[in-house]
Specification:
This protein is mostly helical. The strands form two sheets. A two-stranded antiparallel ribbon has the order 1-2. The protein is about 70% helix and about 0% strand. It has two domains: about 450 residues, Up-down Bundle (Amino acid/polyamine transporter I); about 30 residues, no CATH class. GO terms for molecular function: transmembrane transporter activity. It comes from Lactarius akahatsu. It is a multi-pass membrane protein.
């Protein structure tokens, strides 16, 4: 297609069809779009962060085979999302999709609830990045604040270099993970047996020695033990949020989603196997004085100097992961505020206004920095919230199948089957990750994920019925409103103007 002024005219026309002007610079390639999601999934961040949880909640067998099961169903979720992304390639992602697929009378409500879950979980996800490698709580909090500040500064003043950092991040994750695994396997004095890695089940969920496998069943432990895998394989919706900056968005965004899941699934399984085979002593690894089993594996295999090098690789990956989480978050917030869904939308309409999200991320992270139980609860909350925001538009795509108009990326006859399976999986993990993780259940071991999810549900529904339904009309047809002379950041003004763009024929 022809280009004019550096903008891909076909993509700009597609965006205009959905009612928006091209405001973001469209200069990302397919590989760079993939790179954002790949960097946010960041297996070298997610797996080490919950490696202790995995070793004690099901052990090696659940870590290895749970990863395979989770990767399979996550790919189904990704395929279903990719099909919808191809039909609606905008920065709004799931929030916008929900409004487009639902019937007009329910579109604003569907997009509102999806957007609330997306906002809440993006902040929760960002709050868990890079917080687990310093055993001193006070120092960790200081480091965490500095990391958040640096990531905010990069996204505020370094927008032009983000695509180059993206390229570095992709290679850092790919080569760094591969080099790390090869290094520890080659240097390990001994290796664990295949029986230990593929067949050993361990239940460390009992605070007083009685775990859930004894009180309930081993299946219960195995089910809650997949949190490590599911938490790691999140964030691939970033490819959708970056579509307004990507050439050939209707295909690139979809391929970015699917490819980031596939590559991460393979690389993550390789990393898990490498770490497990390199464990020298299970009890010493779990009870490491460093507070991190992965760090202990490094010390036992490559020594102190080598461990420092490998930790630098992981910390660098975590920094890239957090940086691009902020980037993706900003695009979603930009789209949500563009449609007037956030109070003070004229302020948040600018992409680089990220400091509120960074501040809230810092505040929400404080409990998890002091407690491993709070940390696993935070990861549960982030995982549940994110997948619910994925599941709403996929479920609407199943219910309103006759309203869905396919884009260039579609699944053919398998479309509804895959979408239905994806919805069932999301419903399953939403329940599972609300279950108690430690036995017995008390104020110190309670999984607070259900409380947090309930708060988001209560807020989104309560605020909708009390206030938002009176002024939030769903995604705003920006171009039409500007032609009408209406403030595009004030949906109430659009409603007063008659909002002809929200008639059924336009959805």
């Amino acid at each position: 297609m022809a280009e004019a002024g550096g903008v891909h005219t076909g993509d700009e026309a597609e965006l205009a069809r959905m009612g928006y002007k091209q405001e973001l610079k469209r200069d990302l390639t397919l590989v760079q779009n993939f790179g954002v999601s790949f960097s946010i999934i960041s297996v070298i961040t997610g797996i080490p962060s919950l490696f202790y949880f995995g070793l004690t909640t099901g052990g090696p067998a659940v870590m290895v085979w749970g990863w395979v099961v989770v990767a399979f169903f996550t790919m189904l979720v990704g395929l279903a999302m990719a099909e919808i992304c191809s039909a609606h390639p905008t920065s709004g992602g799931p929030y916008f999709w929900a409004a487009m697929i639902a019937k007009p009378q329910g579109a604003a409500f569907a997009s509102w609830v999806t957007g609330c879950f997306a906002c809440a979980n993006f902040i929760s996800t960002a709050s868990t990045i890079g917080t687990n490698y310093q055993p001193s709580s006070g120092k960790t909090i200081g480091i965490y604040a500095a990391v958040l500040f640096a990531q905010g500064m990069i996204n505020t003043f370094g927008v032009r270099i983000l695509k180059y950092l993206n390229n570095v991040s992709v290679w850092w994750h790919a080569l760094g993970t591969t080099s790390l695994v090869i290094a520890i396997l080659a240097a390990a004095p001994k290796h664990q047996s295949g029986k230990f890695v593929f067949r050993t089940f361990i239940d460390g969920t009992g605070v007083d020695g009685v775990g859930w496998s004894e009180r309930a069943s081993p299946a219960y432990v195995a089910v809650i033990g997949i949190l490590m895998a599911q938490y790691t394989l999140t964030g691939f919706d970033a490819s959708a949020h970056m579509t307004e900056e990507t050439h050939n968005a209707a295909m690139a965004g979809s391929i970015g989603i699917v490819m980031s899941i596939g590559v991460s699934a393979i690389l993550g399984w390789f990393l898990i196997l490498g770490l497990l085979f390199s464990i020298q002593d299970y009890e010493n690894t779990v009870g490491s004085s460093t507070g991190q089993p992965v760090t202990q594996i490094f010390l036992d295999t490559v020594g102190q100097n080598g461990a420092i090098v490998l930790m630098v690789i992981i910390i660098g990956a975590m920094f890239f992961c957090g940086t691009f989480s902020v980037t993706s978050n900003s695009r979603m917030m930009y789209a949500f505020s563009r449609d007037g869904a956030i109070p003070g939308s004229s302020f948040f309409h600018k992409v680089d206004r990220l400091w509120l999200a960074c501040t809230l991320s810092f505040l929400l992270a404080l409990p998890s920095l002091r407690s491993t139980v709070a940390f696993s609860a935070a990861t549960s909350i982030a995982t549940i919230g994110l997948y619910i925001s994925y599941g709403i538009p996929i479920a609407l795509r199943v219910v309103y199948a006759d309203r869905f108009v396919r884009g260039p990326f579609h699944l053919g006859r398998l479309s509804l089957v895959i979408a239905g399976a994806a919805v069932l999986w999301i419903a399953f993990i939403a329940v599972v990750f609300c279950l108690p993780e430690l036995n017995p259940v008390n104020s110190q071991t309670l999984n607070y994920a259900p409380v947090a999810v309930a708060i988001v549900v209560a807020y989104s529904l309560g605020f909708w019925f009390v206030s938002a339904r009176k002024w939030f009309a769903g995604p705003v047809k920006q171009i039409i409103q500007e032609e009408m002379g209406v403030d595009i950041t004030d949906p109430a003004a659009a409603i007063d103007a008659g909002k002809p763009e929200f008639s059924e024929k336009n959805f």
